[in-house]
Design goal:
281 residues; alpha+beta; Fumarylacetoacetate hydrolase, domain 2; twelve-stranded mixed β-sheet; five-stranded mixed β-sheet; 19 strands; binds zinc ion
């Protein structure tokens, strides 16, 4: 199933996307996506029935999609997780997973404008597969990790490289408002196929800048969930950005950064695409 959060008039609610052109509201089943995820075992039958009946169905083009989880409890992101991206940054392949967080205020809808921060000349794109946690837990074994994933989205780990390089910590460079778009919906894990074999691309103004496959992840999704949950309790609706392949703007010669007026599109086979205009803050 494909599950989205959308606005129609003043209402914000979850919905199930059918045929990629229609959305069936789920407000009568759950008030928001976090409730839906946390109670999925009890609610998924009702969601499937609503999708089949198409009661209250709306034209997908007539609603606005928000980030599927509008305010995740945690947004975790791994750095240096594709060999070609490590090579272009001149860094060593890390022995340990390198994690940082993005603030909840960075969340942005799948088609919402991305702000180029005041004075920034080094705002960059990073297409990434995004994991949404379903069942929470601590000390999740790698073999058990698949059972803890609710679904997958397309994300852009927008990064301000000047701020990122000012200090060894990435929090500020990765934390600007609007710099965590993801969506356009959550493809539930049962419908996502082999998530370690999906084509992943980023295009800027129609030019392909990143073009790889999730088969090149150094640390798999399961490795990531096992490692994170050694430290922190993962909760329903937590979001994990799983790393970006080579081709980022800062590594190109000459650099090719996002500027006001650019359009940036991120797509992953089977998970859909997100696309945004870049605007001056
Ligand atoms: Zn990233």
């Amino acid at each position: 199933m494909k599950l989205a959060t959308f606005t129609s008039g003043d209402a914000v609610m979850p919905g199930v996307v059918v045929d990629e052109t229609t959305i069936v509201p789920l407000g009568a089943i759950a008030p928001d996506m976090l409730t839906l995820i946390a109670n999925w075992d009890a609610l998924h039958g009702a969601v499937a029935a609503a999708a089949a009946a198409r009661e209250g169905a709306l034209d997908l083009a007539s609603v606005s999609l928000l980030a599927p989880v509008p305010r995740p409890g945690k947004i975790l992101a791994i750095g240096l997780n594709y060999a070609d991206h490590i090579a272009e940054t001149g860094m060593q392949t890390p022995a340990h997973q390198m994690w940082f967080t993005k603030p909840g205020t960075a969340v942005n809808g799948p088609y919402a404008d991305i702000q180029i921060p005041r004075g920034s000349t080094m705002t960059d794109y990073e297409v990434e597969m995004v994991v949404v946690i379903g069942k929470g837990g601590r000390h999740i074994a790698k073999d058990d990790a698949p059972a803890h994933v609710f679904g997958y989205c397309v994300g852009n780990d927008v990064s301000e490289r000047v701020w990122q390089r000012l200090t060894p910590q990435f929090t500020l460079g990765k934390g600007f408002d609007t710099h965590a778009p993801f969506g356009p919906w959550i493809t539930t894990a049962d419908a996502a196929g082999d998530v370690h074999a999906l084509g992943i691309r980023c295009l800027v103004d129609g030019e392909v800048r990143q073009d790889s496959s999730t088969q090149h992840l150094i640390f798999s999704v399961w490795d990531q969930i096992a490692e994170l949950s050694k430290v922190m309790t993962l909760e329903p609706g937590d979001v994990i950005y799983t790393g970006t392949p080579g081709g980022v703007g800062a590594a190109r010669k000459p650099p090719a950064m996002l500027l006001p007026g650019c359009r940036v599109r991120c797509e992953i086979d089977g998970l859909g695409a997100i696309e945004a205009a870049c605007v001056a803050e």
